[in-house]
Amino acid sequence: MGVAGSGKTTVAALLAERTGRPYAEADEFHPQANIDKMSAGTPLTDQDRWPWLEQMRDWLTEQADAGTSAVVTCSALRRSYRDLLREAHGRVRFVHLAGTVEMIAERMQRRTGHFMPPSLLPSQLATLEPLDDDEDGLTIDVRLTPEEIVRQVLDARA
C-alpha cells in the first residue's frame, strides 16, 4: 500500500517472485472510467473506489479459497479501504511503502507509461491514513532498495 510512485508494483512483483505467490496489480482492476478520470488529473472519489476495492477483495478471496496466499498492490490509502480488503477470506497483511513527498514526486516525474500524473500526488497524500497500531501490517521506508524491502517483509512474517 502507499501513494502512487512509492514502489508498490516493483516491490510486489519481486515479493511474488520470491515467494511463488500469484500477483495482481491494482491498476488491472480499475474500470476504464477510473483510468480516464485519473489520466485527466481528476482524483477518484470514494464512489469510484468502492467497486475497484471490492474486485480486489474478491480476487483475494478466490485465492484464499483455493488455498493460495497472494500478493496484490493497492494504494489502500484510507483505513476504510483497508477494512474492506480485510473482508477477504484468509489473512490480509499490509506493507505501507512510505517516503518523503520530495522522493515520491521525483519518482513520479521519472516514470513513463503510467496514467497517474504527478499532479495527483497531493490529493493522494491528503487522503493517506497510515496504518494504525491495531492493523496487521508494517511500514517500510522506500529509501531502501526493493530487495531490502522484500527482505524486511519476509523477515517480518509471523
How many alpha or pi helices? 7
What is the total number of structural domains?
1
Architecture, according to CATH? 3-Layer(aba) Sandwich
Please mark out the parts with pLDDT under 50 across 5 or more consecutive residues, or reply none.
Answer: none
CATH topology: Rossmann fold
As laid out across the biggest beta sheet, the strand order is: 1-2
CATH superfamily: P-loop containing nucleotide triphosphate hydrolases
Share of helix, binned: 40-55%
Instruction: List the helices and strands in order.
Output: HEHHEHEHHEH
Please count the beta strands (DSSP E, at least 2 residues each).
4
What separation lies between the terminal Cα atoms?
19 Å
Portion of residues in beta strands equals 5-15%
Mind summarizing the main beta sheet? Answer: 2 strands, parallel
Q: Give the overall shape.
A: globular
The Rg value, from CA coordinates, equals: 15 Å
Average pLDDT over all residues: 88
Derived structural class = mainly alpha
Q: What is the CATH first-level class name?
A: Alpha Beta
